[in-house]
Task: structure prediction
Amino acid sequence: MFDRIAERYDVLNRVISFRLDQRWRREVIKAVLTQGRPRILDIGTGTGDLLFDAVTAMPGEGFFVGLDFSPRMLQLARAKRSGNSRADCTAFVLGSAMFAPFQEDSFDGAMSAFVLRNVSDITLLFAETLRVLKPGAKFVSVDMFPPDRGWFSALYSVYFHGLMPRIGALLARDRAAYQYLSDSVRRFPPPENVTRLIEQAGFEGVTLRKYLRGAVCMHIARKPRLHAA
Result:
């Protein structure tokens, strides 16, 4: 499915979110970047939007690795490298976030944007992310959730579950894919439940930030630091 919609993926993200997705990605980047020359993992990198924005925002040297299971998405991400002056500090890897092909304690930070809903075993993703992070490193994720109850929830439901699949059918010529997007949000657990799952995986200091009355939420967590015996 993601291979099918890859060419129109970036455009549809801008249209469906009224370009707010770019703001939320910037919030993720601000939360995850560290000083020095960090190695950052972008989980479910897609066409590389989040990764390349992070490269641009990084004031110094660093290295950014994008992981995704869609060959076509990664093909488009690699094509973007040709227009980036700092392409030599990026790499893209085909693989699953539930079985990350990296050694333990490999990264100074991990981030993801609109990925969690698409993972068949979210607890395994959190466990693998914890494994590949260095002690003290942060994991930051932003995703869509059913919003808090109220007038906005009703308005959101009309747009996201009624109109958005039709927009996807019109612009991407793939109604099924954007119906899946709508359904995946409807089925996703509340952000507070996701907070508990992140904590159960072994992360500490998990914080939750809500945008658009909870329709979009960001989780920030840290891998515990090693303590001397």
The mean pLDDT is 87. The CA atoms of residues 26 and 112 lie 12 Å apart.
